[in-house]
Amino acid sequence: MKAADKQPERFDISLEELTALVDSAAEKPLDEAGVRKLKAVVQTLGYLTELVSDKATTLKRLRELLGIEFGKTEKTKAVLAAVAAAVDSANPAADGQPDRGGSNAADNGNQAKRPGHGRRPARDYESAKRVPVEHGQLHHGDGCPECPKGKVYAQKSEPAQLVRVTGQAPLQATVYELERLRCGSCGAVFTAPAPDDVGPDKYDELAGAMIAELKYGTGMPFNRLEHLEQRLGVPLPAATQWEIAEEVADVAKPAWEELIRQAAQGEVVHGDDTSMRVLKLTRPPEDERTGVFTTGVVSVAGERQIAVYFTGRKHAGENVAEVLKRRAGERPLPVLMCDASASNTSQLDEGVEMLLARCLAHGRRKIVSVAGSFPEQCIHVLVELGKVYKVDAEAKERKLTPAQRLQLHQERSKPVMEELEKWMSRQCAERLVEPNSGLGKAITYLQRHWKGLTLFLRQEGAPLDNNLVERVLKKAVLHRKNALYYRTIHGAEVGDLFMSLIETCRLNGVNSFDYLVELQRHAAELLARPADWMPWNYRATMEALATAH
C-alpha cells in the first residue's frame, strides 16, 4: 500500500498544544482524545518519512499536505494574505498586530456589492421570442383615465418588458400521423401528403447545430446526451449523433478553412497547447514522439479575434508555423505570444519570421510559487508587475489605439520595468539571492527572457501575457475531462472544426447556434464564397441575399 493510501487521521493542533500534551503525559495518563492525537503525530511522522524517501514527491506536494500551500489564485492580494498568514503561524507573538496583507473592507465582508451581479435585463435575451402585447383597455389617442384634459400616446420605443423562461428538451421530435385511405374494392392505399414545411430529412439543421453545441461547445459526451434524450422520450443513439455531427462538419468545413486563412493575417498570434488522447493515431515510422496535443491559436486583428484548434502529434510551434505560412507576403511581421517552452517556437528557424513576445504571467507565476519562502523579495516583484498590469488595464478601459497604448506603456511602465531589471541584476551580482534557490531560478528565468517579456514596450499591440489562448484552451480541456479522448484523428478534426467555429463566435459576441444553422441552410453559398460567411459578417450576407431575391 502506498503512503498516499494510508493518510493519518487529521487533527488541527499547534506546536504549543502538542508540547503541553507531552508534558502532561509525564504527570498523569492521557485520556482517549490525547492518545489519538499522539498516535496521529507518530503516524504523520512515518507518513512524511515515507513520502520524503519517494523521489517522485515534490516540495509542493509536502506543502499541500501540511496545509501551507497557496491557493489556486495568483492575485497579488491573495499571495500577500497567504504570506502574512504563514508568517503569523510561524510567529505566534505577532498575534494582534495589524494585518500585513493589506486587509480592507472586502476582507471583513463589508465590501459593497459589485456591479453586474443582479438580475439580467431583458435586452440580454437576444434569442428570445418577442411578443407584442396591446393594452386592451386603452388605445393611442384615448383620453387619460387620470385627468380629463390629457390623451395617451403609444410609447413604442419604450415598452414595459416581462421575461418568462420555459424549459424543453435539447432535441424534440414531432410525429406526423399521415392519414391512410384504402379502397374497399381494389385495395389501393392512399396516404396523405406531408405538410409543406416538413423537409425530407429526419434531422434538420437545428438538430445538427444543437448536437454540435452540446458536444463540442459544452463538453457533453454523445453517450450522456443519449441517456438524457432517452429519459425525455426522444431516442437518439450516440452513433446517430456522430453521423449527424460529421455531416454538419462536412458542410461547415469551408468556413473553418477560411477562419485559418484569416487567422494567418492577424497582427498578434497567441499559441499554446494542452495534452489530448486519440485512441487510433498512425505515426510516421521516423516519428519517435509519443505525445498527442491540442493546440489553440488565437489571432488578433484589430478588435476581431479568431480561435482555431489543431489536434495531433504536432506541437504548438509547428501548428502556428503552418498557420502563418498562409500569411500574405505584404503583411508586416506578426507578434507571436507564447510561453518559454521550446515546443512553442520549434519552427521559427524554418522560414517563418515573427516578433517573439514572452508571457509575463508565466514569469510572474514563478515568483508566486516561491513567495512563501522569500516573502519580502517576491512581494516587491509582484507589486512592481502589478503597476504594469494596472497601466494596461487603463489602456483597455480608455480604449486606446495600439499606438496610444504603446506610448502610455513607454511613459509609465518602462521606468518600472527598467528599475525591476536593475533590482534583479543587483540581487544576483551582490549575492543577495542564492542562484540555485527557488527565487534565484525565478529571477534567472525573467532575465533570460527579458527581451520577449518587454516587447510590449517596443511593439504596437504586443500583449503582456498569453492568458487569452489559455482561456480558449479550456474548451479542449473540458472535452478531455468529459469525453476522455477522441477515437480517431478524423474525430479530432471534427472536434477542432466545431470548437474553432463556436469559440470564434463567442470571442466576437455572435450566437454560435444560429451561425451553425445558417451555414447548413446556405451550404452552396458558403462553398462558393466562404469569406462572406464568417461569424462577423454572415448576417450582412444573408440580408444581401434576401434583398437580391
- Strand share of the residues? 5-15%
Secondary-structure-derived class: alpha/beta
Give the strand tally.
9
Instruction: Tell me the number of helical segments per DSSP (H or I, 4 or more residues long).
Output: 19
**Average pLDDT rating:** 84
Instruction: State the low-pLDDT regions, or none.
Output: 89-111
- Along the chain, the helix and strand elements come as HHHHEEHHHEEEEHEEHHHHHHHEHHHH
Strand order of the largest sheet: 6-5-3-7-8
Q: What portion of residues is helical?
A: 40-55%
Largest sheet: 5 strands, mixed
The best one-word shape is: globular
End-to-end distance: 74 Å
Explain what the structure shows.
The chain is α/β, with parallel strands linked by helices and 549 residues long. It has 19 helices and 9 strands. The strands form 3 sheets. It has a 5-stranded mixed β-sheet with strand order 6-5-3-7-8. Strand 1 and strand 2 form a beta hairpin. Helix 5 crosses helix 17 and helix 16 crosses helix 17. The chain is globular and about 105 Å long.
